[in-house]
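User: Could you walk me through two proteins back to back? I'd like the raw sequence and the structure tokens for each, with a short line separating them so I can tell where one ends and the next begins.

Assistant: Of course. Protein one, sequence then structure:
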Amino acid sequence: MLIFDADDTLWENNVLFERVIDDFLDWLAHPTMDKAQLRPILDDIERANIVTVGYGSKALLHNLRETFSHLYEREVSAEESRQIEELAVTLIDHRVELIEGVPDTLTELSTRHHLLMLTKGDTDEQQRKIDHSGLAHHFQSIHIVAEKDPDTYRQLAKELSLDVGNTWMIGNSPKSDILSSRAAGMNAVFIPNVHTWVLEEDELDPADEGVLHLERFTDLLKHF
């Protein structure tokens, strides 16, 4: 059983968010702080709001508005809110950029393995990205969850009667994809993405033999 993360594993995601954030920090034109000083403030606001606003474009827009209010010590005007939304039009439209080699690799893997998709975020938003990706037919089932922690993987294994020892979670996020699935007893494949969200970064144990490290998605065909 191969379980695939979606954002930044099957298609680019965080790089789109990073472009919006970069444009937002330029748009802020803060009088005393540069972008390197502003970014940690936004990161802290995002970290604090995960439990209440979750993930995705709606969450980002909320966090951008809150960052503006925090820095300028006032509410965002209707016009400023509209301008912030214009910066994020790519995200709001749910445009999908597949990572190189994904369709062909999934096509071949599906001839010899059971494939699942496990993605977290806003249900409607993630479903729209899945629909636009054209990849849904490769997977026996698709699961959209609010969070990917060890309990999520344990619950999925219980619901689907998975043999965790023969189940592999494939993704780019050390925190959500690798460490959480390993804590639930699964194996994992780490395929790094240079644009992985900073809040998903974590340290991986290089001595953990249950984690396979690959350079690119197409390398899966050499191992499965």
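----
Protein two, same layout:
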Amino acid sequence: MANVPTKPTTPVKKESSSASGLFASLTIPICIVVAILIFVFILGDASHFKGGDTSATGTPADIFGTVHKGGVIVPMIMSFLLMVIVFSIERFVVIGKASGTGSVDSFVRKVQASLNAGNIAAASAECDKQKGSVAAVIKSALKKYAEMEAEPNLDVDQKTLAIQKDIEEATALEMPMLEQNLTIIATLVSIGTLTGLLGTVIGMIGAFSTLAAAGAPNPSELSSHISEALINTALGISTSAISIIMYNVFTSKIDKLTYAIDETGFSIVQTFAASHKNSR
């Protein structure tokens, strides 16, 4: 019995993986630096405080000054928020390219119609029009389909298995590209909340220290610490909420692409098995 060929016809995308890793390595420190600059030079500008007093006892004149009163934890949380925004934009672009030039659902229907009509060339032409990861996997399967039709040494079951394995392996090569950097967004869900909680604790420690001081507590200093705690809480929760939403959006999009690949791949395998059943 001949061995079943399992080598996928889709090449490994090492360049895309390296580019994505470089993007992440550059984005994280840049977001941190930008967040610090915004905190110091924009939020901390004297125009955002009454009388231009930017000291610890100064009174904010607007929302920018209020956020600045959150203390040193604020730029940390802001950097996390910037990361979520930047990585979300990057994932939108990558997943959009993976989807191709048109509707994935429409593409799947066209390919299935061509397969039902026995027109493999038309299905392959649809892949060329669509482009993207889904089309790449399907075109890889169609190439394997053509190879198996010309393969004289395997029976129908072996040929069907070869096509199915090609689809699985081609999918395995495409999926890591779609899922890259999602781990960072998922991590920011927890880090945002924990950093906000850290800022809350620091602010409350300062507030209770003020209350514990001898004599009557300074109302201005007390309110400043409470404000610091609440601002960090709000920023941390907001960052985590946005991270959760974006993570769920991207996983939903990836699941949709995976389902489209599985659905079309199943149609290809079934079409091959049905059209060659008499040759068993």
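DSSP finds nine helices and no strands in the chain.

Let me know if you want the two compared in more detail.
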